[in-house]
Specification:
This protein is 88% helix and 0% strand. By secondary structure, it is an all-alpha fold. It has a single domain (3-125), classed as Substrate Binding Domain Of Dnak, Chain:A, Domain 2. The model has no long low-confidence stretch (mean pLDDT 86).
């Protein structure tokens, strides 16, 4: 296979498979940061909840301040939790498209490799008469399958 064909196929694989997968992986550290942020907010919430539980006089000014902070912390935990859920859903949703796009690109590259190899090897077939039985069998079986498919299509 020509060097330029190898280079084109290699670049196509990098551009269509490797780069998108790398970009998807870059999303994960951002998710880790959001999860760590959520854990910190959860610690804050738990601290205010413990303070509120320890408060002797639920009607005191200090107790009301703690209750306000507890509500605010609860709201922040919910907000960051929603961010984590959204980020996970985005990564999950993109995974199927990434896989299908990568697989389709891989099939296209492999098809091109096989086509170019066949074009390069075909002139050598007359020098290899031993290949004739295998080629005849392949052609025969391929034609039989094609005829079955045509017959099945006409019945529909």
């Amino acid at each position: 296979m020509e060097q330029w064909t190898k280079k084109v196929i290699s670049n196509t694989c990098k551009e269509m498979i490797v780069r998108p997968a790398g970009e998807k992986l870059k999303e994960i550290p951002g998710l880790h940061k959001t999860i760590a942020h959520r854990q910190q907010k959860l610690l804050d919430y738990d601290a205010y909840r413990r303070k509120q539980d320890a408060e002797k006089n639920p009607e005191s000014e200090q107790s009301l301040k703690i209750a306000t902070k507890l509500e605010s912390a609860h709201s922040k935990v919910n907000s960051v939790t929603n961010e984590v859920i959204t980020a996970c859903a985005t990564i999950e949703n993109g995974k199927t498209k990434l896989f299908l796009d990568g697989f389709a690109s891989l099939v296209a590259c492999q098809t091109m490799i096989n086509l170019r190899s066949a074009q390069k090897l075909e002139p050598y077939l007359p020098m290899l008469p031993q290949a004739a039985p295998a080629l005849c069998m392949i052609c025969s079986k391929t034609n039989e399958e094609n005829l079955r498919n045509v017959a099945a299509d006409t019945k529909k």
